[in-house]
Amino acid sequence: MPPEAPPHRRTASRRSGDPRPSDPRLDEAGVWLVIPCYKVKDHIARVIARTPAWVEGIVCVDDGCPEGSGDYIAANITDPRVRLLRLPENRGVGGATLAGYAEADRLGGRILVKVDGDDQMDLTYLGQLVAPIVLGEADYTKGNRFTSISHLTAMPRVRIFGNAALSFAAKVSTGYWNVFDPTNGFTAIEASVARRVREKRVSQRFFFETDLLYHLGALRAVVRDVPIPARYGDEVSNLRIGAIVGPFALKHLTNFVQRVLGQYFVRDFNIATLELIAGAAFSLFGLSYGLHWMATRTPGHAASAGVVMAAALPVIVGVQLLLQALHFDVFNVPSRPIHPYLRAIERLEAD
C-alpha cells in the first residue's frame, strides 16, 4: 500500500469556501468512498477498479474479515487513492461504516459515499447519488431500487415483498415519508452531518441504514432518494430474514415512540400534539365504554342506540383526530438542508 498522504490543498480550500459553488464539479467535490469489507475478498478488486477517476479517496475497512480482505487489498491493490483501515474486531456493517466515515473525514473528505464490497452497486450512478449534496439540496442521499419496474426484474421476489414491508415500517419509525427502500446500502452523506451522526448511538448491525435515518430525522436533515437499480451476481448475503424480523419490529416500535415523544412533546408542541392527545383519549374512552358495557350487560339484552353511539362516536372522532395527526406528520418531513448551517458554524469557530 502507498504511504498515507495528507489531504489535497484544494480540500482545505473547499472546507472554508462556499458549500454551494456556482459551477460545481465532481472532481472538486471531495468525494470519498467508504467500503466495509467482510467476506468480499472475491469482489473488492472489481469495486475499486470501477471507481470513477473523480473520486478523491477510498477507505477500505477490514471489519475483522475472516477471509483476510485487508491483507488481500494491501498485497494486490495498487490504486493510490486507497487507504486501508483495520478494525481489531468485527463491528458489523454500521460500525465499519462509521469508522470509515471518521477516517475519510480526517483525510479531508467532504462527501462520504458508503458502498458495499460485494459489487452489487453500480458505480456509474455515483454522480447522480452525490449531485444533490454537491448542489446543496440534500444532506443525505440513498439509492432506491423501487422507482421503476425494470429495476425490479433482477430482484428476487422475496426481497421485493420484504423490502416493501420494511420500507413502510421505516416511514412510520423515522418520519421520512418521502423515501423508500430504507435498507439500501448505497448512500452518500455530507461530512459535517456525518460528524453529528457519529455522536449518536446508531445501530451497528443490519439495522444500521434504517436507524441512521431515524437519527438523521432527529437532526432534521434532508434525505433524498436517487433511482439506482441493484445488481445481483454470485455474492452471498450474510443476512438471515428469520433472525431479524423480531428485532427489527422491536427497533421500529422503539424508534417510533421515541420520535413521536421527542418531535411532538419535547422539541415542539403543536396542533399534531393536541390531535394525538385528543385522538388517543377519545379512542380509549369509546373502546373502554364499549368493553365495559359488554362485560356487565344482562345476557340477551341488546344495546340501545344511546349505548352504541356513546361507544362508537368517541372512537370515530378519535380515529379522525389520529389520522389528522398522521397527515401533519407526513407533511412535516425536513425540507431545508442543515449542512450549510453546520459548515458555517465550523468556519466561524475556526475564525
Explain this structure to me?
This protein is α/β, with parallel strands linked by helices and 351 residues long. The protein folds into 2 domains: 9-244, Spore Coat Polysaccharide Biosynthesis Protein SpsA, Chain A; 269-351. It contains 13 helices and 7 strands. Strands 3-2-1-4-6-5-7 form a 7-stranded mixed beta sheet, with helices on both faces. α2 links the parallel β1 and β2. The longest helix has 26 residues, at 241-266. The protein is elongated. Mean pLDDT is 86; it is low at 1-21. Residues 1-25 are annotated as: Disordered. Residues 15-25 have a biased composition (Basic and acidic residues). This is Glycosyltransferase family 2 protein. Keywords: Membrane, Transmembrane, Transmembrane helix. It holds the Pfam family Glycos_transf_2.
Please state the average pLDDT score: 86
CATH class of the largest domain: Alpha Beta
What portion of residues is helical? Answer: 40-55%
What is the N-to-C order of secondary-structure elements (H for helix, E for strand)? HEHEHEHEHEHHEHHEHHHH
Order of strands across the main sheet? 3-2-1-4-6-5-7
Core attributes:
elongated, alpha/beta, 7-stranded mixed β-sheet, 351 residues, Spore Coat Polysaccharide Biosynthesis Protein SpsA, Chain A, disordered N terminus, 13 helices, 51% helix
